[in-house]
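Troubleshooting: if your tokenizer reports a length mismatch, compare your output against this known-good record of 246 residues.
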Amino acid sequence: MKLRTKTEETHGLNVLAFDTSSPVLTVSCVRCDGIRSEANLTGPYQHSENLFSLIDHCLKCLKLDLREIDAFGIGMGPGSFTGLRIGFSCLKGFALACGRPLYGISSLDLIAEGVPAGIGRLAVIVNARRERIYCAFFRSRDGVFERESPEDEVLSIHDLKEKTRGEIAFTGDALLEYGDALRSGNPAARFLEGKFWYPRIEPLVRMIQSRSKRMKPLDLESLKPQYLRLSEAEEKLRAKRVLTNA
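Known-good structure output:
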């Protein structure tokens, strides 16, 4: 998906969006006249305590009421299971209360959007725990990151190394655990600073305001995060059922 646009049409929408998939809780709001507010909170996962206060802060900065929001957006994951559940519960509540359209994109796209233009090939890698990594791969063309494939992936470190040979830049918090292995296997790789590792929701707010007429809204009845894999508890339960039925 292309996030950056050289020209943007303003459709006069008040838009509110947030991402709860990572340790960085990010909220942004844009008013119909283009004035924006943004709040980002970095630290331990306490999104349930902080999400509503950040939303309230952004709305007050623009002198908006929640009932004046014309569209909502969310980073759909992958990422923290608990964080995503908090964000989606909030989004569903807003949708039911306000009856407004919902839009979302992968949180890995949001990470890519924060990376400076001019990088040839980019791997966004997020720690999925239990020796797996959430991945998305991009190429930069004319200052815009284009996906190599439409779907996010879940890979082992071995498979990731096979897919990232040669010149490539890495970003994402999986570098904390797997950075050394990636460095040793690819001397041509580049590793971005930690400030580029996490999603920022502001690009989605801009996208909704400028392109909502060409975007497909999310379906409230089937709305769910992009988990990509089962939680640890669900994997243990599935394994237990297999053993019981064996």
